[in-house]
Design a protein that fits this description.
With 455 residues, the protein is α/β, with parallel strands linked by helices. It folds into 2 domains: 208 residues, P-loop containing nucleotide triphosphate hydrolases (Rossmann fold, 3-Layer(aba) Sandwich); 217 residues, P-loop containing nucleotide triphosphate hydrolases (Rossmann fold, 3-Layer(aba) Sandwich), CATH 3.40.50.300. The protein is built from 16 helices and 14 strands. The strands form 2 sheets. A 7-stranded parallel beta sheet has the order 3-4-2-5-6-1-7, sandwiched between helices. A 7-stranded parallel beta sheet has the order 10-11-9-12-13-8-14, sandwiched between helices. Helix 2 packs parallel to helix 3 and helix 6 packs parallel to helix 8. The radius of gyration is 23 Å and the shape is globular.
């Protein structure tokens, strides 16, 4: 489709065009240009698009258009016309925010529901007429069980980040929700990839869908300047602080593998005089909301996040991403750096890599089909540093996991470091990094915290 196409060319209603203009957007992204006309026509859509491609507006705008063009005379309390299912509470909140931003000049009422928070305010909100409901599956089924929501009037269903929902074990909940919906409806399924599982779900859900696929981020955005700094694990915390202060960065998203590591790094940065906060599965919803809001507003310079906690974060024009540790899964690197270099804005992604991560780095370079530049940091001289790692630090977590059992060159002779209780949550797997011991979603652990399943 022609790159000079405008939102007006897509046939959107005037109140939506006004809201788009006020939000500062002039041209649709590829996923928006392709999806919006098909959704307006009322057909089913199967779309491959990742976070950062503009996919949320790709379905919220045409859905709002359809509601404006076909107003209903039968608005009832707690009976939505549109249902959007998302895997995490953060993504649910951002989708509903998108609905409010683009629907500000339209008489459309929306609400968001997810687990881990008091259900009573949601019940109160459902006592009023409703057009668009954005929800996580577990909490939605809680409301359905209590008969506080009526899904019999759903005209449009959206499954957002469907692959993530399947990965997180939501397939049974999704099927339970589908059983509560009218058979005649429009279905929109968005996924990062078209896996066999997604195609299987689509076959049973979609009716003669239009298939849309935008450029995959496995090629890594050309707008993102990528670099690698080789360093020792024990130097990483001081190095990331040195880099942020030395470059005068004001908005930096830093990824760690573990929740404990995220906390430790945020504390270190605060001690160094930087405004920083951590978000992960053990943080309360209100704490994560405050941290994200402060980061977006510029009050917080550094947001330290685990992979799962960062799922669905939609931050326009984020200039800097730092990989404090490389992810175990190469595709997660692509997701991480995809947080920057959006909407035509340049960005940079810097990875701090120690000797134990060389294989992970090679796997990433194989995935993106090019080497990542090795760079030196000016005025950085770790040889002058004398630093004793704190108990439970990321350094110690790595040593504890070392099968050779080395700790400062010493061993107790049984292949293990001298006895010291390891930090909790030290697992380096993405699932463990985002797992939560926090709130339940009506008895379901899957919707807890950032929406991840319990291992």
């Amino acid at each position: 489709m022609n790159s000079t196409i405008s939102f007006a060319d897509l046939g959107l209603a005037e109140p939506l065009l006004r809201a788009i203009s006020e939000a500062g957007y002039t041209q649709p992204t590829p996923i928006q240009a392709q999806a919006i006309p098909h959704v307006i026509k009322g057909g089913d859509v199967l779309a491959a698009a990742q976070t950062g491609t503009g996919k949320t507006a790709g379905f919220t705008l045409p859905i709002l258009h359809r509601l404006l063009e076909q107003p209903t005379r039968d608005r009832k309390a707690g009976r939505p016309r549109v249902l959007v299912l998302t895997p995490t509470r953060e993504l649910a909140a951002q989708v509903e925010e998108s609905v409010r931003v683009y629907g500000k000049h339209a008489k459309v009422r929306s609400m968001v529901m997810f687990g881990g928070v008091n259900i009573n305010p949601q019940i109160a909100a459902l006592s009023k007429p409703l057009d668009i409901l954005v929800a996580t599956p577990g909490r939605l089924l809680d409301h359905a069980g209590q008969k506080t929501v009526d899904l019999s009037g759903v005209e449009i269903l959206v499954l957002d980040e469907a692959d993530r929902m399947l990965d997180m074990g939501f397939i049974r909940d999704i099927r339970k929700v589908l059983a509560l919906l009218p058979k005649q409806r429009q279905n929109l399924l968005f996924s990062a990839t078209f896996s066999d599982e997604i195609r299987g779900l689509a076959t049973g859900l979609l009716n003669d869908p239009i298939e849309i696929s935008v450029a995959r981020r496995n090629t890594a955005s050309e707008l993102v300047q990528q670099g690698v700094v080789m360093t020792e694990q024990s130097h990483k915390r001081d190095l990331v602080s040195h880099i942020i202060r030395g470059h005068g960065w004001h908005q930096v998203l830093v990824f760690t593998r573990t929740k404990h590591g995220a906390n430790r790094l945020a504390e270190k940065l605060v001690k160094d005089g930087l405004s920083a906060a951590a978000i992960h599965g053990n943080k309360s919803q209100s704490a994560r909301t405050r941290a994200l809001s402060g980061f977006k507003d510029g009050k917080i310079t550094v947001l330290v996040a685990t992979d799962i906690a960062a799922r669905g974060l939609d931050i326009d024009q984020l200039p800097q991403v730092v990989n404090f540790e490389l992810p175990n899964v190469p595709e997660d690197y692509v997701h991480r750096i995809g947080r920057t270099g959006r909407a035509g804005s340049p960005g940079s992604a810097l990875s701090l890599v120690d000797s134990s991560e060389i294989k992970l780095l090679k796997d990433i370079e194989r995935l993106i089909k090019r080497p990542i530049d090795r760079i030196e940091i000016p005025d950085w001289n770790p040889a002058t540093m004398v630093r004793k790692p704190a108990s439970g630090s990321a350094d110690e977590e790595r040593r504890h996991a070392d099968p050779r059992g080395r700790r400062n060159g010493a061993s107790n002779g049984r292949g293990r470091a001298p006895a010291r209780k390891p930090a909790s949550g030290r697992s380096g797997t993405p699932a463990a990094a985002g797992s939560s011991a926090g709130s339940r979603d009506g008895g379901r652990r899957r919707d807890a915290a950032a929406g991840e399943p319990k291992p």
